[in-house]
Structures are given as structure tokens and as C-alpha cells.
């Protein structure tokens, strides 16, 4: 499943309630509490975080394991072998009646068996052609149904027949409905999203990844609709009225979360890929927008068949565009679902650079056809085996087919995001204990995806590309159609790589945290030596208790700043190496492949800054990112980072300037409502404006290159920073666009619309809503709705929040709209009051993720201890283990922001005033 992007952050669900002063004077007072009050709050917050983490850990400790020691919540005394499922979805009423016959293997005689079910009514449950009828007891909290028979079922094979009625949801879990606009009015389709544990919302099942079985699906639907499942259709026949019965071929053995069903007024474009029928499925009239996706899938299938050494085993592979329901993509075997704007490309509405994102997400999801679908982790504690590898493989494929995109360099932010989270007290190991379905949801984070990806890249670099590939092939062949663990992967890689990697890999996967390599140079008059020692890199307020020490086995690349690395170093503690002549600039983490931070001594750092222009761009970027990270960790002062910016050339690579833009955006957010903000904004404008002036509004280029991406990023950021000329020009271009849409290049539309939205008055706000309402393209609707939600005028923000309670907006973007009011619109308290007042309504519409995920994530819009304490005390989000984990993470994030603002902003303000650019 692909979830990490700006869109995903905007669309995450959530909720909350509490008492908080509404008077602005009280808010200002709480934002700057007296020292003793602040310390008391921090002590309370540290206690709250510890309590939350202890409660979550306690729930994990209570987890029991069955006799075969496979992790999970269900007993393994009964296992499913095959499901024959017939569903009759009522798309109008959203009822989902069905009947299933499940072939099971009873491993030891039992009169009771337990499986998963949510919001399901059981009509009749029998065994072996009616030999016995079962009584059913459901547990809503555990999401289980226990079937009790009068006599035990003997060990061996049996058949269960279960008649039931489930429901089609309006939020993106289980089988859900999507109402979408067309030129002829609103239409409805249904689709599914089941990871990690929502197959139980469609049919009763053993809904854990280790329970692999085959699935034979039949659906009864209106004759004018198309149904898409995991496998090809084997028959269609008319039934009573205007309905038809559609039967699909049985799937191979797979986990229940990979089941898929999509039904609607759909069309398909197809191509043959070595005997596999590849298709892109869209709502009617949009098939042509799937051509880039189709071409990408065909070449990716051939590439992956070769790389993995095991051919894709299903006869077809559909990529399904869903115009709502969820914000990412899901790797259902044979029928991958995508949020529509993540799959379709329309040159009339999409920038050329959008192709990069489409290719990346297709490559990620298709990699799952092997890593995840063919070979599946045994339990969610090894989720990184799915997501980390799919993320790594997607970038590897991008480098293969589009080297000009520079996937690793331009994707540097993924590793940076992971390292920022991994440096916190609330981090977790890549392999982490998972207690239940609610906690499984929390595992889909940047540690799992991005740290996993970075670790795999580092290990491939250490072993060598060919040896690593042979290990992956061996792993695939050994565990096809089965489940595997991280240990299985290390064994396969060691057997082909000729190097021991278990110790390296375990030090990064079995413990949390980011290594810090401290590099100190000494000189004996002629020769230079470099001492390397490792420490733990931590981002936490200074008055927090220290985190436990860690020790890693780190493959370290060290060498001249513009040369080749010295001999390979595996740093286990500390070492001392020869490092050229005195004064030579020696760079650690050459190429920025390693997952660690670097802190240089004063002499090293000075030499590096002198050699900065001659470094490779990856190394310049690495120095810049580590410099800011050291400021965040309190190991360096803000002026050291700001002074480094003077060494940057306006013509440097987009990735370098994107890091600077990200830092300025962070400082701008932290300084909201503070006296330092005007100074920081003026400084950021002064540093970024020459970069923009060099490339201009209408520079040459294809629109799909890095310059186009940097231009758009600069326009958005300078607009946020209040650059009057940028704002005025954006408004002028938007006005021309309203009269003539062809006047504004697609590459500029998101950026211009964002700036116009942030500064909107009522007339502009109404125009943005009109544009959204008149469009049937999902990406356009998102563009205009989110721009309107970014308006910083309080009355317009209230209008946006009221809009989220109507039926106008797709449920998919409601949480994104609320978050945009808080973040881009800079009205977090207004949005928070709204969420609390309307919590029950929003929870009912958005589902449990609104409570457990969205609310904690939303609260990180605040940067003061008062709101951290408010979140820690908010009960609804702590009703599940997963919710408590998310609250603890977000409380820590808010406290870190408050500490960073208190430390960094005054120092930055003073330095800027003394060193005006």
C-alpha cells in the first residue's frame, strides 16, 4: 500500500474533545507560559507520553499466541483453505447480503471456532451440508464471531456455510461507495480497501495475513455495470430482473487483505504483457487518461519478472482508478486500486511532472505483487518486508526507466522524514510488536516505508547489486505462496552475498533510533587522521530524560569530499583511519547512501565548506540536511545552518534548494504568532527570491523537468512568505486563467491556485469553489477545494468548515479540507473547535481512523505545550491501542516543536538582524 505523499497527509482521518480557552489573550498567554508553568507542563507531558506508551506496550504484552506460535489474535486450531463467496451488493441501500462456503482444516477437534467479522448480521451457519447448526456470538471490540456447535468438529476437512448481511461503508474501509460527478450528474460505484484488517467488513473470514487461502467470488449486480476482481471473469449470466451473476476464477492462495471487488459504470483499456492481460479500469469516458499508466505497467511487469526470477503468476493485472474512498493505492493481487488522481494522466489538467508520481506509485504497488502478495509477512510486525521493499523497488525501477528523474537524489526527503521521526522518543523498531488490528494501522508510517527503503538500499550497496539480487530471487523461490519473516530474508541474502549481514541488518531493524557518526580530524604536521565514533542522534527537549544508548554496525563510506571512498569501513564502535594530508576535506557518508547522521569537528567542517562547490550534489545535499538536523537536535546553533546557506549557489540542484525551502517553511510555521516571524520571513524571501529570479515564471524546459518542479515550489513558498510581487503575479495569472484556461500552463496551476487561495477574498473564494464544483476531474477538484480551504480569512475558514458537513464534498477530502484550514489557512484553533463540536458526526462519516489517526495527526498543527497537554487528555483517541500510540507520537511532536521554537527562533532572529542578506 502506498500512503506517503502530501495528498496522503492531507487525507488522513481523525477526531477529539476538550476544554480550551477561546479568548485570544488567553491563547497568547498559554503559548508563552511562565518558565515554571512551562516546566510543569513538560513534566506532565513526559508522564503522559510514558503512560500512553506503557499502556500500548501492556496491550501488546497481553497478546496470546496459539500452539503453533504464529503471531496473531486468532487461534490456529482451525484454518481456512478455500472460500466460495457470493455477494449481492445493493448499491442504492448499501446493504451487502452474501453467503459463503468455506473449506476448513480442523487441526484438533473443537466445538468452537473463532473468525473475524465487523458490523455483520449472521442468518444461518451450518457445517458439512447442514450436519450441524452453529450458534454465533459476536464481539464488537475484538471484531470476532465465535461459532459454537453442539458437537465437536473432528480433526480433518470440513465445510462451513455462512449466510450473512454486511454493509457497504461510506468511508474507505471494507467495501465502500463512491459518489462522483459526471457531465450527466452524480453516479455511484463501489470498491474495496482491506489492508490491514477490513476484509472482515465484507465477509466473515480469518482476517490475518498468515491465514492464506484461495477465493472464488461470485457477485450479483445490475447488468449495465462492470465488476472487477482479483481474477478474470469466467462466466456472466442473467438472473431475475435486470441483474446478472458474474463469476470469477479462483485466486491462488493469498491473504484475505488482498481480496478486491470494484463495481460500477466502468471501462477498461488493455494490453498484452507476455501473456498477461494488463488493464487500466476507469469510470466511463476516462479510459484514454490511463494510457501512460498502461504503458508503465507493461514495461514494469517485464522488468519485475526478470528481477525477481519468478514470473507474475496471475493471468491478468488490472489497475483500477477509484475517484474517492481513500487517498493512496492498494496492492490487491491482480486488481490494484488507486485514488484516481494517482493513476490517470490528462495533459489538459495535469503537469508533465505528475507522470513521475504516477510511475512511482504504480511501480510501488506492482512490486507488491511479489513482495507482499506472492510472499507475505506472517504478521504485521514484519510489515516493512512489504512496504520498505516496495518503496525501494519503485525508486530502483524509476532509475532504470527514467534516469533523468534522479529518483534517489530527488527522493531524499523520504529518508529525511524517517530520520526525523526515528530520532524521537516515540520511535519504534522497523520490526515492531503489533498487538491488534488498531495497532497494525499505526505501522504504516515513515519508519516502516522510508527507513525500510533506506536500509535496503544501504544493504544492497554493501553486498553488491548482483549478489543482492540473487538473494532476493532465492527468497522469492523459497517462500512463494507462503509467509516469511525478516530472518528468512537475511538468510537468503547471506547465502548469496558472501558477507555476513545479519548483525548489520538486525542493528537497524530490531532497535529504534538513528546512528550519529562523529568525525574528528587530527594532524601531526603532515598527515591527517580521522577518528570516527558512533553515538545516538536524538531530537528531544533538553529537559527530557536521556534515551537509552544504542550500538549499530554501520557501513560507512569515507573519503575526499570530491573523490572516491577509502576502503570499506564497518563501524561497530569507534575507529581511527588515515585521511590524507592535513587540511584535506574529508566527507563521511559519501553519496548519502548510509542511514546515519554525521557531526564534524570544527576543522573538518571548515575544510568541507571550503570544498563545498566541488562536491557531488548528493554530498552537498547531505551536508545541508545533516546541518539542519543537528540544529533540531540541539547539537548545533541555528546560525551555523544559516551561515551555510551563504555557500549555496542560486543555480544549485532542485534537491538542495528543496531542503532549504522545507526548513524555511518549518521556521515560518513555528514562528506563527511570534515576534520573530517578520524577520524570518524577510530573510527567507531574500534567500529564495534570487533562485526564483534565475528561473523566472516562464523559463524554458519541457514542463516535466526539475526546473518546473522547483519553480512551482518557489512560487508556493514565496506566496506563503508574503512576497508581494509573487502574490500579485499569481493573482493576475489566475484572473487570466479564469477567462482563458489555456493561458496558465499546467505546471503552474497548483502553485498559482495555492497562492490565490491563501490570500483569497470572498469573490476569489467563491470562484475557487465554482471551479471545483464544475469539474469532473479528481485532481482539479482537489486543487480548487484545497486552495479554498487554505484561505487565511477567518470567515472564509468558517465557511469551509461548514462545507465539510454537507454532502457536497467527497468524504475522501473532508479531513484534508479541515487540515488545510489549520495548516495552510493558519486557523488551527478554529478548526480544532469545529472538530470537537462536530466530533460525533465526523466520526460516523469518516470511520474509526478519524478518531485514532486524524485527530492526533491534526493536533501537530499546534506548537505549544498547552495543546500537547490537551491532546494527551483527549479520551476518544485513546480508546484503542493504536490510538494511544498515535496520541503519544503526536504529543511528542508538539513538544518538540515548542522546544525548537523556543531555542531556535530567537537565535535565528538575532543572527539575521546582524547578517542581513
Give an overview in words.
- With 917 residues, the chain is α+β, with helices and mostly antiparallel strands.
- Among the domains are: 1-62 and 793-917, no CATH class; 375-509, Neutral Protease Domain 2 (Neutral Protease, domain 2, Orthogonal Bundle); 516-627, Immunoglobulin-like, CATH 2.60.40.1910; 649-670 and 673-759, no CATH class.
- It has 30 helices and 30 strands.
- The strands form 9 sheets. Strands 5-4-8-2-1-11-14-13 form an 8-stranded mixed beta sheet, with no helix packed on it.
- Helix 4 (291-308) packs across helix 5 and helix 21 (746-758) packs parallel to helix 23 (778-789).
- It is globular.
- It starts with 5 loop residues before the first helix and ends with a helix.
- The relative contact order is 0.10.
Which terms summarize this structure?
917 residues, alpha+beta, Neutral Protease, domain 2, Immunoglobulin-like, eight-stranded mixed sheet, five-stranded mixed sheet, 30 strands, globular, disordered N terminus
Share in helix: 40-55%
Give the structural class: alpha+beta
Count every beta strand, where a strand is a DSSP E run of 2 or more residues: 30
Mean pLDDT: 91
Low-confidence stretches: 3-44, 51-70
**Biggest sheet: strand arrangement:** 5-4-8-2-1-11-14-13
Euclidean distance between termini CA atoms: 45 Å
Strand proportion, as a percent range, falls in 15-25%
Amino acid at each position: 500500500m502506498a500512503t506517503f505523499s502530501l495528498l496522503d497527509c492531507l487525507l488522513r482521518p481523525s477526531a477529539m474533545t476538550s476544554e480550551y480557552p477561546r479568548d485570544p489573550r488567553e491563547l497568547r498567554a498559554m503559548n508563552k507560559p511562565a518558565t515554571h508553568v512551562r516546566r510543569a507542563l513538560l513534566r506532565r507531558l513526559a508522564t503522559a507520553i510514558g503512560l500512553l506508551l506503557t499502556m500500548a506496550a501492556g496491550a501488546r504484552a497481553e497478546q496470546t499466541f496459539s500452539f503453533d506460535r504464529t503471531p496473531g489474535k486468532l487461534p490456529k486450531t482451525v484454518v481456512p483453505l478455500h472460500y466460495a463467496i457470493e455477494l449481492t451488493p445493493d448499491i442504492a441501500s448499501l446493504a451487502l447480503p452474501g453467503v459463503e462456503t468455506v473449506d476448513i482444516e480442523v487441526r484438533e477437534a473443537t466445538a468452537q471456532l473463532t473468525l473475524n467479522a465487523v458490523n455483520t448480521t449472521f442468518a444461518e451457519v451450518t457445517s458439512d451440508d447442514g450436519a450441524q447448526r452453529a450458534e454465533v456470538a459476536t464481539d464488537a471490540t475484538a471484531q470476532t464471531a465465535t461459532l459454537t456447535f453442539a458437537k465437536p468438529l473432528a480433526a480433518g476437512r470440513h465445510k462451513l456455510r455462512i449466510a450473512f448481511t454486511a454493509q457497504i461503508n461510506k468511508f474507505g474501509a471494507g467495501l465502500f461507495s463512491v459518489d462522483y460527478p459526471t457531465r450527466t450528474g452524480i453516479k455511484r460505484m463501489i470498491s474495496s480497501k482491506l489492508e490491514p484488517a477490513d476484509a472482515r467488513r465484507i465477509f466473515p473470514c480469518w482476517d490475518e495475513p498468515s491465514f492464506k487461502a484461495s477465493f472464488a467470488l461470485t457477485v450479483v449486480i445490475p447488468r449495465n455495470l462492470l465488476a472487477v476482481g482479483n481474477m478474470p471473469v469466467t462466466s456472466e449470466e442473467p438472473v431475475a430482473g435486470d441483474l446478472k451473476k458474474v463469476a470469477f476464477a479462483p485466486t491462488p492462495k493469498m491473504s484475505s487483505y488482498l481480496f478486491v471487488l470494484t463495481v460500477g459504470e466502468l471501462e477498461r483499456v488493455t494490453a498484452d504483457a507476455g501473456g498477461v492481460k494488463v488493464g487500466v479500469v476507469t469510470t466511463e469516458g476516462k479510459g484514454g487518461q490511463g494510457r501512460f499508466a498502461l504503458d508503465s505497467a507493461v514495461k514494469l511487469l517485464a522488468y519485475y519478472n526478470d528481477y525477481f526470477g519468478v514470473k507474475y503468476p496471475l493471468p491478468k493485472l488490472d489497475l483500477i482508478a477509484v475517484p474517492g474512498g481513500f487517498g493512496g493505492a492498494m496492492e490487491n493481487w491482480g486488481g490494484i486500486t488507486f485514488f484516481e488522481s494517482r493513476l490517470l494522466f490528462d495533459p489538459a489538467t495535469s503537469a508533465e511532472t505528475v507522470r513521475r508520481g504516477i510511475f512511482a506509485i504504480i511501480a510501488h504497488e506492482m512490486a507488491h505483487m511479489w513482495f507482499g502478495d506472492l510472499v507475505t509477512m506472517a504478521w504485521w510486525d514484519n510489515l516493512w518486508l512489504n512496504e520498505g521493499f516496495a518503496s525501494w523497488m519503485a525508486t530502483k525501477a524509476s532509475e532504470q526507466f527514467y534516469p533523468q528523474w534522479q529518483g534517489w537524489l530527488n527522493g531524499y526527503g523520504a529518508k529525511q522524514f524517517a530520520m526525523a521521526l526515528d530520532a524521537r522518543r516515540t520511535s519504534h523498531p522497523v520490526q515492531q510488536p503489533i498487538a491488534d488490528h488498531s495497532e497494525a494501522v499505526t505501522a504504516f508510517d515513515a519508519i516502516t516505508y522510508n527507513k525500510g527503503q533506506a536500509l535496503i538500499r544501504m544493504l544492497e550497496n554493501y553486498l553488491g547489486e548482483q549478489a543482492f539480487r540473487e538473494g532476493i530471487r532465492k527468497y522469492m523461490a523459497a517462500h512463494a505462496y507462503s509467509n516469511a519473516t525478516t530472518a528468512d530474508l537475511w538468510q537468503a541474502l547471506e547465502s548469496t552475498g558472501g558477507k555476513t549481514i545479519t548483525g548489520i541488518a538486525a542493528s537497524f531493524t530490531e532497535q529504534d533510533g538513528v546512528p550519529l557518526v562523529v568525525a574528528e580530524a587530527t594532524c601531526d604536521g603532515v598527515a591527517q587522521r580521522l577518528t570516527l565514533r558512533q553515538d545516538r542522534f536524538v531530537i528531544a527537549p533538553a529537559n527530557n530524560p536521556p534515551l537509552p544508548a544504542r550500538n549499530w554496525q554501520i557501513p560507512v563510506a569515507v573519503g575526499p569530499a570530491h573523490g572516491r571512498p577509502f576502503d570499506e569501513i564497518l563501524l561497530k564502535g569507534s575507529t581511527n583511519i588515515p585521511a590524507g594530508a592535513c587540511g584535506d576535506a574529508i566527507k563521511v557518508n559519501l553519496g548519502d547512501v548510509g542511514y546515519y547522521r554525521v557531526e564534524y569537528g570544527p576543522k573538518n567542517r571548515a575544510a568541507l565548506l571550503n570544498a563545498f562547490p566541488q562536491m557531488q550534489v548528493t554530498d552537498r545535499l547531505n551536508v545541508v540536511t545533516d546541518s539542519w538536523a543537528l540544529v533540531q537536535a540541539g547539537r548545533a546553533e541555528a546560525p551555523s545552518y544559516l551561515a551555510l546557506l551563504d555557500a549555496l549557489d542560486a543555480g544549485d540542484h532542485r534537491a538542495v534548494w528543496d531542503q532549504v525551502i522545507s526548513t524555511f517553511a518549518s521556521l515560518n510555521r513555528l514562528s506563527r504568532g511570534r515576534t520573530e516571524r517578520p524577520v524570518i520571513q524577510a530573510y527567507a524571501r531574500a534567500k529564495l527570491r534570487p533562485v526564483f529570479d534565475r528561473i523566472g515564471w516562464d523559463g524554458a524546459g519541457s514542463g516535466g523537468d526539475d526546473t518546473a518542479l522547483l519553480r512551482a515550489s518557489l512560487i508556493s513558498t514565496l506566496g506563503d512568505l508574503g512576497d508581494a510581487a509573487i502574490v500579485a503575479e499569481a493573482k493576475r495569472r489566475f484572473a487570466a486563467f479564469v477567462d482563458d484556461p489555456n493561458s496558465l500552463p499546467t505546471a503552474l496551476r497548483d502553485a498559482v491556485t495555492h497562492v490565490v487561495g491563501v490570500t483569497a477574498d470572498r469573490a476569489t473564494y467563491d470562484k475557487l469553489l465554482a471551479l471545483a464544483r464544475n469539474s469532473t476531474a479528481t485532481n482539479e477538484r482537489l486543487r480548487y477545494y484545497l486552495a479554498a480551504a487554505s484561505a487565511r480569512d477567518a470567515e472564509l475558514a468558517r465557511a469551509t468548515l461548514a462545507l465539510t458537513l454537507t454532502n457536497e464534498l467527497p468524504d475522501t477530502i473532508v479531513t484534508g479540507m479541515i487540515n488545510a484550514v489549520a495548516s495552510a489557512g493558519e486557523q488551527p484553533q478554529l478548526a480544532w473547535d469545529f472538530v470537537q463540536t462536530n466530533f460525533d458526526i465526523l466520526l460516523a462519516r469518516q470511520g474509526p481512523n478519524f478518531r485514532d489517526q486524524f485527530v492526533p495527526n491534526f493536533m501537530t498543527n499546534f506548537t505549544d505545550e498547552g495543546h500537547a497537554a490537551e491532546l494527551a487528555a483527549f479520551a476518544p483517541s485513546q480508546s484503542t491501542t493504536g490510538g494511544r500510540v498515535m496520541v503519544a507520537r503526536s504529543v511528542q511532536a508538539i513538544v518538540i516543536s515548542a522546544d525548537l521554537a523556543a531555542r531556535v527562533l530567537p537565535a535565528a532572529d538575532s543572527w539575521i538582524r546582524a547578517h542581513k542578506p
